[in-house]
Amino acid sequence: MGVNYWLYSQELEGKMDALDKGQPVDLEMMDQADKIWKRARVLLFREPGEGSIPVGLLGPFGEPHAEGKYHIKVLEVLSDTDEDE
Amino acid sequence: MAKANDLRDFVEALRKERELVEVNDEVDWNYEIPAYEVLSGRFGGPAFLFSKIKGIPEGPRVLAAPFVGSFYRPHKKAALALGIDPKLDRAGWVQELGKRMATMMRPVEVSSGACKEVVKMGKEVNLLEFPFTYHAIGDGGKYIFISAAVIKDPDSDWINTGNYAIEVFSRNRLVITPYAHTNFLAIYSNKYELRGNSMPVAVCIGGDPAVTMAAGMILPPGLSEYDIAGGIRGRPMELVKAETSDLLVPANAELVIEGEIRPYERLPEGPKIEVFGFSVGPRQPFFPIRVHCITHRKDPIIWDVHTAMGTSAPSLQESLAGTAFMGQVMAFGLPFKLGNSLAPTRSGATAQSAVYKKKYPEDYPGFMKDIFDKFMGLPGLGGVFAKEAFVDEDVNILDYGDFYDALFTQINPARDIHKTNKMTVMTIESSWMEEWDRVAYVGPGGILGPKQIYDATTKEEPPQGVRRLNFETIYPEKTQKWVVENWARMGFKEEPRWNKSYLDL
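Predict the joint structure of the above. Result:
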């Protein structure tokens, strides 16, 4: 299966308290469309649900695993470009 | 004056030598383009010119696999890029490149250049418009692996250029990853960051391949890669002023990305595929370039290299290793002749080992140890080579037999193997470290590790009459010529390996 976003498992581990709680968390996700990391506010789910999409996980050295094991609902992409003041 | 050489001349040379496959079908920057290069690298295959890239507006093309070489001739396309005979053997290549390097030429400034055909500033900047590629599963992003990143020493007129892995982080951010041994890092850390200043940087893609090749060499502080590029091309490089700083960039570059690195700013980078055939990580903080301006040709050719076995980056490493340290030898007057990496590998890993030929016998007991100490303190050299061997002048270092013979017959194990415990090393060695080793060796100043030096030189004048038994040294020249000329007539099918140059490296 293909997924649209990859998350770092290390970062996800620290946010597992929010899993299936409907509690928004901010995390980095790599958009597979342009291979750019984006910071986003998401809801985390173990099972697929309405509006959620499956994600894959990356280990510390970029090892892909657990593809489709978790799902996210993207509430807001916080940044996909860096503003220069 | 004839037109200056550029990347398009290289493309033409590849075409003429039937080393180029031109692809008009649509291809994907995501995995597909790099995958062609990896397969090409398996058989020393061709370069590719892709003209239609998925999701990228018409215009930019991608030149992939530009330096893919073969095991015994890793330099074949690098030679083509410089107008050198690609059929030269390794010894001939090293000698020719070394000779050219020694004739440095200062660059000249020109008022305009093809790299300015399109200029985009500020909000118009969008790195995602260009077909930078995503090379492998697990990479932290798209990477530029071949470019010349130009910076300037604020205290002198020294312009430094280097070739580093650069992650495309967002529409207007790159993350650049100079290794600890580089002049880039010395200049940035000591002369900009510590003073609280931003450093202008221009990432130049294309132009004369000589610039990028020189940027891949390890040179001593104060020596500009532009001067070396002029030497290896045989004419001065033509440079034009950047739009947003006083940096001088190759006038005929395909694409120039201008920006600044601000002090103490870091962004996460990696993991990524790395030269030497491994993927390295983890994601860690490196130097972001805030991109303020992009200038380019109307139809820029973006060249792209891979780092897997046999692909462009390792082939180029193999081609430049051995000559790269020549600048150090020239600058510091070291008592060695031109060295070369030993035993070509398909991963480019020999760039991490080096062999040096001692020019003359020891002046006094302990002479070599003093030289090693000096050597390890040199910027560049002390940082990059983890395993080094020193042999006598008459050892043919391109011949494994000759080299290992010296290694196994000339070393007193009690005295002649020197080990340092914590010196700067390259990423690949540290990649093998377990977590508990990394705690001990990896520090804020860079990656540390042990190094070994093998002193396989003769430690005192050999007794009179003792000579190494080479075809070239034990027969009169007349006899050598006679035997070589009659070689084929005698029924031998193999080319006779008779070449003074093998002894003269």
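Chain A touches chain B through 16 residues (CB under 8 Å).
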